[in-house]
Input
Amino acid sequence: MIKMDTVLKKYFWILLISSCMINLPVKAQWVTKITLEQNTTKYQNLEFRAIALEMDATTSTKASIRVADKLYDIVPDEHSPISDGLRMSNLIVIDDAQTGFSLIASSQKQLKSAYLIHTPELKKKLKSKSDTLDSCTHPVMILQEEWRDGLPDPDYDRIPNMVSHQIIHHSATDNELTDYVNLVRSIYLYHTEVNGWSDIGYNYLISPDGLLFAGRDPGENLSQDSVLGAHFCASNTGTMGICMLGTFMTQTPGEEALSTLNQLISWKAIQSNLDPEASSAHPLNQELGTIAGHRDGCSTACPGDALYAMLPQIREKSLETIQDCGVFPGLNVNTNNQEMTLFPNPINGNILRFTTSLSLKRAILFDLAGHQLESWQITSNQDALRLPQQIKNGLYFIHFISQKDRVIPVKIIVNKQY
Output
């Protein structure tokens, strides 16, 4: 016969364990939210690879936390909206999974909650960066289905977007990180699971070693550069967001990252006929540069003082790259003019004829990816252009270049009947 005190002891321990579990945070699949107590500075037994703090939006006092013997400053995330006097902090990402953190005593009053992000390790090995000899084309990138493997897919209606401005950001994350895939995956979970956004905010992300990550998922019907992002103070129309991974307040990006950035923005300038050194009106800035920093339209330190100071030479380098590709963007480009007539268009063969009142010297044929397919010398204002024999059906651009280096971009449709 079982003694009564044995039974009571058994149920005592069951009740004790159950009562302890009630006070533990409930771990979701991707994010665990815990309330920070005013009399507690150390939090243990909580595995995470990234963390963000909910903080008092009105305080200006510096806040800090310690993770794995390293001290991190906590600053507001300018992308985060203020709700009930609170906003999210910057995202802190760690290469290796951690099980605890501690608050600096002076930070306790202004930090209210912690969001622990459980970024699973990517099982697949991604392809390393491959050099592209042609600087006029879109650089090789790591697609969403590669870096997002094992994470939830976004599901929402994409919005098409015609880009007139390329906005450069920094991620404001630790420059000592080496696991860039984990960093991109953590940003994705922070944007979607903590901020509640439909997808990652940026169109592209560039790691310090020059890897280009495809950001916001364009779905089946849009291209990577033409899907509307979420990165420019809720005024994203006309912009393409590029995030340089790291913090660039006093440190500039390395050569590999800048090389990839130059190739990307130069390709986009060719593809959309943008002048890297020009500016045009935007709801947040009436003279927003074609290549601009986040702070040019928003109240933010992004993309960091050091990177922002580099923008003039980034623009200049991009213009040189474009000109080396045979494209000369002009300030007075007019695509809707009566000075140029092409026929037939759509074209069902290989001969395209044109008449013009302009004095031309050259014409260049590009596909939608910005690849140069053919070029012709022009000596007459009535002439015929022979397209490449193997050209496929689709949309193409011809840039007619005048003797004064004015560029007249024209769209043509090839529709051969086989």
